[in-house]
Design a protein that fits this description.
The chain is mainly β. The protein has strands spanning 3-11, 13-22, 25-31, 41-49, 58-59, 66-81, 84-91, 95-102, 114-118. An 8-stranded antiparallel beta barrel has the order 1-2-3-4-9-8-7-6.
Length: 122
């Protein structure tokens, strides 16, 4: 099963990096609010990250702050397209469905072109 991790990233301000293992890298989205069930949160896609972040906590190179693992586990992909990712998470804290989708009305000027929602998605 592929793995996921959520890192609390303290750099300039706090945000959470939601990372899904896929094709030898971590597909990554940054979320500026705590991730919790039932709330649609704006997210921004980041460059793929190295798999080392599945287990890493500590200082990030080039003075980009520090990361602390907030959750981790495995996931099963249900849908994976360029505009939508739906997975079933089996983590320590996050258990159940999660969906990311491109937002037509997202705050594109701030980089938020995605939305994230956890919980019952039907």
């Amino acid at each position: 099963m592929p793995r996921f991790v959520v890192l609390e990233h303290l750099w300039q301000a706090v945000h959470w990096d939601f990372m899904l293992e896929r094709d030898g890298t971590l597909q990554t989205w940054a979320v500026d609010a705590p991730i919790c069930s039932g709330i649609v949160l704006p997210a921004r896609s980041l460059a793929d990250h190295r798999l080392i972040y599945l287990d890493y906590e500590g200082t990030v190179s080039a003075n980009r702050g520090t990361v602390r693992r907030w959750d981790q586990g495995t996931y099963q992909a249900v849908v994976w397209t360029p505009n939508q990712v739906r997975v079933i998470l089996n983590g320590t804290q996050l258990v159940g469905e999660a969906e990311l989708w491109r937002s037509e009305t997202g705050e594109i000027d701030r980089g938020f072109a995605w939305s994230l929602r956890l919980g019952n998605l039907d």
